[in-house]
Amino acid sequence: MRNSRFRGIGIVLGVAIGTSVGVAVDQLAITLPLGIVLGLIVGSSIDKRRDR
């Protein structure tokens, strides 16, 4: 976990996307965790790509 910077960016992006979508659809409780999970997946996949 030495390149966790991208994971942090992914979490921030996921939270931002989840919050904006959640506010738009009035389903913040559902979209916020989804956004965090998506951000984690994107961040860790970028991490793996950078490790190669």
Provide the helix percentage. over 70%
Domains counted in the coordinates: how many? 1
Strand segment count:
0
User: What summary fits the major beta sheet?
Assistant: none
Low-confidence stretches: none
Topology, please?
Elements: H1 5-25, H2 28-51
Describe this structure in words.
- Residues 3-48 form the Glycine zipper-like domain.
- This is Glycine zipper-like domain-containing protein.
- Keywords: Membrane, Transmembrane, Transmembrane helix.
- The chain crosses the membrane at residues 7-24, 30-46.
- By secondary structure, the chain is mainly alpha-helical.
- The chain has one domain.
- 87% of the residues lie in helices and 0% in strands.
- The chain has helices spanning 5-25, 28-51.
- The longest helix is centred in the C-terminal third of the chain and has 24 residues, at 28-51.
- The two termini are 14 Å apart.
In short:
The chain has 52 residues and is an all-alpha fold.
Fill in the keyword field for this structure:
mainly alpha, 52 residues, 2 helices
